[in-house]
Automatic annotation (TrEMBL):
Major site of localization recorded for this protein: secreted
Family annotation (SUPFAM superfamilies): RmlC-like cupins (SSF51182)
PANTHER family in the cross-refs: GERMIN-LIKE PROTEIN SUBFAMILY 3 MEMBER 3
This protein's name: Germin-like protein
Domain Cupin type-1 residues, every copy: 56-203
A cellular component annotation (GO) from this entry: apoplast
InterPro entries: Cupin_1, Germin, Germin_Mn-BS, RmlC-like_jellyroll, RmlC_Cupin_sf
Cysteine pairs bridged by disulfides in the record: C27-C42
Length: 213
């Protein structure tokens, strides 16, 4: 196949993909339909209402009476049908004094946060050389966390802390490292072998977080 043939093929591919591709203003999530890698199915536009594009959950403070003294309220596509397919979502995090959002990752999106109240110590670890980037953040400060990298937020002030987080995905996903390691039924011996942690400490953490094995 010569260069001219490749260019003609590429041009016509673009033409047909743009001419016959479905163009939609939005794809409000239809929770009764199937969900695939691209998100939820689209609700029939005739059944879409303005309420599909409004979410009130982030107005409410989360319950921080738990082991991490923090609460995260999400407005992802599973709670906010209007963001389905739009490549964005939001979350609210409330941290009591001493509260922490432990090391975690968002495999499906990058995060940007803005501190609304209080003081945070926040940071992430790069995948090259395990370089750590962390900073004390005060009200109005903004920080970004690249997609898939381990990161954390700690309430480093004396009062309560609140931040809002935006994501470049309607469902960025979430995996808390501590819970992934110790809130499961993986045998303690295997956890010890893969983490180099002491067996007694692993059993203690499994007991605290609800793991077995």
């Amino acid at each position: 196949m010569n260069t001219n043939t490749i260019l003609i093929f590429f041009t016509f591919s673009l033409f047909f993909s743009s001419s016959f591709g479905a163009v939609q203003d939005f794809c409000v999530a239809d929770y009764s339909g199937p969900q695939g890698p691209a998100g939820y199915s689209c609700k029939n536009p005739a059944k879409v209402t303005v309420d599909d594009f409004v979410n009130h959950d982030l107005a409410n403070k989360g319950n921080t009476t738990n082991i991490i003294k923090a609460a995260v309220t999400t407005a992802f596509d599973s709670q906010f049908p209007g963001v389905n397919g739009l490549g964005l979502s939001l979350a609210r995090a409330d941290l009591a004094p001493g509260g922490v959002i432990p090391f975690h990752t968002h495999p499906g999106g990058s995060e940007i946060l803005i501190v609304i109240e209080g003081t945070l110590c926040a940071g992430f670890v790069s995948s090259t050389a395990n370089t750590v980037y962390f900073k004390t953040l005060n009200k109005g400060d903004v920080m970004v966390f690249p997609q898939g990298l381990l990161h954390f937020q700690i309430n480093s002030g004396r009062g309560e802390a609140l931040f809002l987080a935006g994501f470049n995905s309607p469902n960025p996903g979430l995996q808390l490292t501590d819970f992934a390691l110790f809130k499961n039924n993986l045998p303690t011996e295997l956890v010890a072998a893969t983490t180099f942690l002491d067996v007694a400490q692993i059993k203690k953490l499994k007991g605290v977080l609800g793991g077995t094995g």
